[in-house]
Amino acid sequence: MRCPECGEASNARLKYCENCGAKMPDTPSQLTGSRPALRPSRPQRALEEPSYAAEILDEADDYSRGGSGGQPSYAPPPRAVEAGEDTDPGQSRPKYDGPKWLASVPGHSQSVVGLGILAFALALSILPSFDGVGVVATLATLVGAVLLVARELRQANEAEGLTGLVPEFLLRPEVTAAFCALLVALAIRMLGLGFTPVLWLVSVGLVVHDQYRKVLAGPEGVVARYFDPRQLLLVPEVVALGGVGLCILTLYAPWATVSTLPNTPENAPMPAGPPELRVIQTTRPPDDVLYSAGGGITTLSGWELPGAVVMELLLLTMLGLLALRPEVDRPAWTRFAPAGVTGVGLLWALLHMKLSPGPIIFVVGLGAVGFLAFQRLRAEQQAAAAPAYDDEGAYDETEQVPTPDADYVEDETEEVAPRRR
After folding, report:
1. Residue 269: helix, strand or coil by DSSP?
2. Which of 42, 53, 51 is nearest to 19 (CA)?
3. Which of 140, 255, 381, 396 lies 20 to 30 angstroms, CA to CA, from 106?
4. pLDDT value for 414
5. CB of 250 closer than 8 Å to CB of 345
6. Which residues pair with 297 in a beta bridge?
7. % of residues, the chain, pLDDT over 90
8. Given this model, what pLDDT does residue 20 score?
């Protein structure tokens, strides 16, 4: 190392020059950063060259040895990147940037979480201490859940082999909207106090909230394309709307009473005793809860009767048909839907008719639906009986129209009297 002041060679480990006492520059080993083990040897310079010239020449040599990048020889070489170091199999898919609680969910779908909770609620309904929606409604819910999961996985480009087995028409938005309507109807049936109703509300809320943004809402959604809720606010449709609401509310009211005490006839022989031993029917006090358990009478609501869920679905389906847009094509039998629902509802109410407020108010609600059915049938009958008129003007077919004679030539100057009709 040469002194920058006098140019005399000195020991590189010394901080000051031995000749003039000037401060020696720091060696590359004392600089920060990494460097190779040894600097390549430099050619010996002549002693008569000035110190600044030697430093300039040394820097030029270092720059020439650094390669095309222009890096000095003591600079660390660029780190070589191995071929498979940055290989990420997941780079072909876009990085997920949604909610963290959906990061590990298949398809990152909120509906899949809701259907998982719903499956747990359906599994609990097998136990006798938990309420359920019935066998038919449970099977329909499971089928709809499988179709909805397949639709969510296909949209997320996951499980393509499994979703490919489902037909394309079953993954249409209309099928998803119908399944959401079914879940809402079953959630109305499950309203109450308990653990299972809470599971139903949470699961159905997650599914409907997610599918409302994807399928139902928006200008291209199912609701905007097929339905107009304002149709239900017209007369007599609004009367039927109130009747359906009243019928569904009455299903929470008492409909029947059932005795849980064994009906033992008087003077009946004991099953496990001699025939001489008889049973004497005695009336127990009504407040003796130890033996009678509240009199042995259980009150059943309308939901606990067979066919209640089917009756609810019929009423809500009729409202959906009434809310269709006028320009939407519909089958011809839909005009008889109110009359058919009224007839089925009256038959179901008569089968379970008791002197209770539930069935009586249910029949009153069906009367409002029957009023709509009567108005629809009357309008159809009047439209069929009305004669068809020609827009250009009608005339009596029995009127004789004179045909002009071929040999008669009308004088243009003769005034023709107007023909009396």
Report:
1. strand
2. 51
3. 140
4. 47
5. no
6. 259
7. 29
8. 81
Tell the residue number behind the tokens 């660029």, with chain if given: 78
Q: What is the dihedral of CA 137, 168, 177, 216, to 10 degrees?
A: 160
- Residue that is written with structure tokens 């899949």 in the block: 112
DSSP percent split of the chain into helix, strand, coil, nearest 5: 50, 5, 45
Structure tokens at 84: 């498979």
How many Cα atoms occupy the beta-carbon half-sphere of 256 within 13 Å? 13
CA distance 399 to 391: 19
- Is residue 154 within 8 Å of residue 168, measured between CB atoms? no
What CA–CA distances, in Å, run from 359 to 345, 349, 362?
11, 6, 5
Among 211, 212, 298, which residue's Cα sits nearest to residue 260?
298
Q: Is the dihedral of CA 372, 377, 383, 386 positive or negative?
A: negative
Q: What is the pLDDT of residue 395?
A: 47
**One-letter identity of residue 369:** V
Strands 297-301 and 254-259: antiparallel
Range of 169-183, 217-231, 391-405 with top mean pLDDT: 169-183
Q: How far apart are CA 59 and CA 73, in angstroms?
A: 10
DSSP 8-state symbol, 32: S
Q: Region 328-334: what's the mean pLDDT?
A: 84
Write the pLDDT tens digit of every residue in 172-213. 999 999 999 999 999 999 988 889 999 999 999 999 999 998
DSSP state of 215: I
pLDDT value of position 100: 83
Picking from 299, 300, 282, 278, the residue whose alpha carbon sits closest to that of residue 291 is 282
Cis peptide before 359 (omega within 30 of 0): no
> Which residue reads 């209770």 in tokens?
356
Q: What is the pTM of this model?
A: 0.63
What pLDDT, in 10s, does the model give residues 358-380? 899 999 999 999 999 888 888 87
**Is 140 exposed, middle or buried (CB count within 10 Å of its CB: 0-12, 13-18, 19+)?**
middle
Q: Within 13 Å of residue 360, how many CA atoms lie on the same side as its CB?
A: 5
Q: Measured between alpha carbons, how far is 169 from 175 in angstroms, rounded to an integer?
A: 8
DSSP state of 30: G
Question: Are the CB atoms for 284 and 290 separated by under 8 Å?
Answer: no
Structure tokens at 315: 């009423």
Q: In which residue are the tokens 């430099």 written?
A: 42
Distance in angstroms (rounded) separating the CA atoms of residues 39 and 9: 18
Note whether 111 and 207 are within 8 A (CB): yes
Residue located via tokens 């430093």 = 55
pLDDT at 366: 92
